[in-house]
Amino acid sequence: MKERSGVLSVKRETVLTFLVLLVAAITAPIFIKQQLITGTIVNAAIIIGTVLSTRDGLLIGLLPSSLALATGLLSPVLAPVVPFIILGNAILVLTFAYFRKFNFWAGVAFGSFFKFTFLYATSTVFIGLLAPKLVAPVVTQMMTWPQLITALAGGLVAFGYFKLTGKLSTIR
Fold it and tell me: Which helix (DSSP H) or strand (DSSP E) does residue 142 occupy?
């Protein structure tokens, strides 16, 4: 009986952590209008969520953009970018999940690089075709180097979280 109680408390903690991460990823863009800060928070939430489970990381990478668009928090002119953001987040999650088996920092570095590369390539090719001409240069800029910086910074914040909570062993 006691063993089952321990499993239940771990699950409860995991669920609560997931919910806090999801709320942070959803609300950061609402309250903080600075891409480098917001992106760092969202990427940290994605990376921490991925340590919980790959599924959690994917959900955290999917839901904020989808909800922002569905509720009108994201400008409709940015709607064509949402699928690319979601795919970029999925690339971060899957790459991080794979490489973290070897080393947390390798996961952060490769995940950040592949997310950045995907968003850079798609923004330079497709955003100009999909977004209105006046918005395309701004959106393209948002999808380039800031994505690499915020993904790497998110990895640093995630590492700090695991260090502060005494859960460094969970990242290996």
Answer: helix 136-142
Instruction: Tell me whether residue 130 is exposed, middle or buried, using C-beta atoms within 10 angstroms of its C-beta: 0 to 12, 13 to 18, 19 or more.
Output: middle
Predicted confidence (pLDDT) per residue in 1-60, tens digit:
445 555 555 688 889 999 999 999 999 888 888 889 999 999 999 999 999 999 999 999
pTM for the predicted model, two decimal places: 0.88
112/116 Cα distance (integer angstroms) = 6
In the prediction, which pLDDT does 8 show?
53
The CA angle 24-30-34, to the nearest 5 degrees, is: 95
- Tell me which CATH code domain 2-171 carries: 1.10.1760.20
